[in-house]
Known about the structure:
The complex is a heterodimer of chains A (251) and B (444).
Chain A: E1 2-11, E2 17-26, E3 31-35, H1 42-50, E4 55-64, E5 67-68, H2 74-79, E6 82-85, E7 92-96, H3 97-111, H4 119-132, H5 137-141, E8 143-144, H6 150-164, E9 168-172, H7 180-193, E10 199-204, H8 209-212, E11 217-222, E12 225-230, H9 233-241, H10 244-250
Parallel strand pairs in A: 3-10, 3-11, 6-9, 9-10
Antiparallel strand pairs in A: 1-2, 1-4, 4-5, 7-8, 11-12
Helix pairs in contact in A: 6-7
Chain B: H1 9-21, H2 29-45, H3 60-63, H4 82-85, E1 99-104, E2 107-108, E3 120-124, H5 125-131, H6 134-141, H7 149-157, E4 160-166, E5 176-182, E6 188-198, E7 203-212, E8 218-228, E9 233-241, E10 247-256, E11 261-270, E12 273-282, E13 288-297, E14 302-311, E15 317-326, E16 331-340, E17 348-357, E18 363-372, E19 378-387, H8 390-398, H9 403-419, H10 425-440
Parallel strand pairs in B: 1-5, 4-6, 5-7, 6-8, 7-9, 8-10, 9-11, 10-12, 11-13, 12-14, 13-15, 14-16, 15-17, 16-18, 17-19
Antiparallel strand pairs in B: 1-2, 3-4
Helix pairs in contact in B: 2-7, 8-9, 9-10
Amino acid sequence: xxxxxxxxxxxxxxxxxxxxxxxxxxxxxxxxxxxxxxxxxxxxxxxxxxxxxxxxxxxxxxxxxxxxxxxxxxxxxxxxxxxxxxxxxxxxxxxxxxxxxxxxxxxxxxxxxxxxxxxxxxxxxxxxxxxxxxxxxxxxxxxxxxxxxxxxxxxxxxxxxxxxxxxxxxxxxxxxxxxxxxxxxxxxxxxxxxxxxxxxxxxxxxxxxxxxxxxxxxxxxxxxxxxxxxxxxxxxxxxxxxxxxxxxxxx
Amino acid sequence: xxxxxxxxxxxxxxxxxxxxxxxxxxxxxxxxxxxxxxxxxxxxxxxxxxxxxxxxxxxxxxxxxxxxxxxxxxxxxxxxxxxxxxxxxxxxxxxxxxxxxxxxxxxxxxxxxxxxxxxxxxxxxxxxxxxxxxxxxxxxxxxxxxxxxxxxxxxxxxxxxxxxxxxxxxxxxxxxxxxxxxxxxxxxxxxxxxxxxxxxxxxxxxxxxxxxxxxxxxxxxxxxxxxxxxxxxxxxxxxxxxxxxxxxxxxxxxxxxxxxxxxxxxxxxxxxxxxxxxxxxxxxxxxxxxxxxxxxxxxxxxxxxxxxxxxxxxxxxxxxxxxxxxxxxxxxxxxxxxxxxxxxxxxxxxxxxxxxxxxxxxxxxxxxxxxxxxxxxxxxxxxxxxxxxxxxxxxxxxxxxxxxxxxxxxxxxxxxxxxxxxxxxxxxxxxxxxxxxxxxxxxx
Lengths: 251, 444
Ligand SMILES: Nc1ncnc2c1ncn2[C@@H]1O[C@H](COP(=O)(O)OP(=O)(O)O)[C@@H](O)[C@H]1O
Ligand SMILES: [Mg+2]
């Protein structure tokens, strides 16, 4: 279970508070959506969950399975099952996708006390998972994300997620830049990972993604905190009314 | 150039070393004359300081406190050279199926000279300097009247080495691997010369390894002359480790005939002072140079790579890619001078120098220089110096890759682009392994 308790986050370099008392609980087996206007701090929340530098938690806590993760390094969190699918996946020139996937997969397996995958085992698993996401193995021989289209990058993120078998999946605007076909492939990939052992936090600006990845709960993030929570129908309401009501509150 | 009035201790010692060694140095009367002219030139030049443009970032006069005793080309006999021959000694390149010629402290191990290889003529340097066949004479002519102190010292003191000629149309079936090992515990001054001459359409994969087996500090001065006939091809890999306290001065003097191609690659590790000079001249049209170098100095190492590329004739192509990864107080220097003569139209010259800085105390100096006297040319250069990208590091770590491993991955990706230039697969893999070993020796 993910428990975010009264979280206050400011930018490390600037005197600007982004999250101001955010509280949220996502039980295992559930998918929660976070929606909110641009600049409301959705990505900030995602980065703070993953442990990126540049943000300072000034109050509150984040517990994953009852344990605070705030003091953990990003790779330790990954080993504990935290995975962030980036809004803007990064390009790593010179590192082949397969090398990257294998290094990452075996690093987390090792940390989790599981046996590392041999080359043939790894290739079998990666081929199988890549095929489901319409990713050609040829593409994985190229450097990570270099020269990939927006849709290819997002599928590559989901492949990484599938390989690392996380238990807390945070997806930051995975729908942005996807056409309808790619959206379907990516959503199927995410849905395939839904399981009673996994919690998912799906961040999106638009309701469209939630037709494919149907959430158990929807939360509205604005002015640094959760302003409203509800069932999946809340996403449809927001689609009609927009976020004006909540940004108004912020003023 | 004004004559320096006061000589440093090292300058005096080097001049005296020549006087002491002269009688025992090999060569015909003509060679003796060359040596005397060269030491005269050295006396006039002195050791280079920062005021000499080619040595702007390596003040050899200040760095060279004294000179070490001269090592002579005597048969060293009972050296344990097994690990040098099969590539299993540290710093060597295992898995390379080559004709390996071993030099210990500059002295040729005669039993390692390849025999009866069709189209290949190999002479110990001493023999070549006594008999001076025309192709050797021509090669020696390229380093006569030196303007560079290191070249002058090499001509004056060259003691060990080899001269090789490959006949027209001959492609050797295996690389030639020259292994220069340094043994023992006494400081020594080792001066070697390699002369390579390729006939028309001949091709050669030449590998040089310089490695210390003993514990001593060395002053090494190596010079390779390469003359490539029409459409000849040479891949020239230089792999070296120079330990702290040692100095390695090297020069390549390369002359390319029409349509010849020269592909050098250098990988340097260690904490010593290293200087690579390349003096390359295009003498026939449509020839090409594809230069790549990787410097991985240890914490206090200093690696200076200074090139002078002379486009004398039209339609030639030159490419230079230099990379260094600098940790501690290491220093990387890249100077690439490209001269395009009047009439050398359609010259295509590009260079790129990139440093990855692992420490705020490290220093990278990059100085491209273009002297273009023709109007229809494409020439360009670039230079970057950067630290490991924090965003990429976070991306890797968010995928569970521990910090040190993530840094290693990103450094390897930086290095990879340049090692990939080595086409010979076993050689490339051996170099990748060497770079990996360097990384894991505390640089991540
Ligand atoms: N590293 C950063 N440096 C400067 N400003 C930042 C940084 N991260 C976020 N911000 C600012 O914080 C606010 C929230 O950004 P973000 O979390 O990206 O919002 P969202 O994902 O909801 O669009 C924005 O005003 C953004 O400019
Ligand atoms: Mg965002």
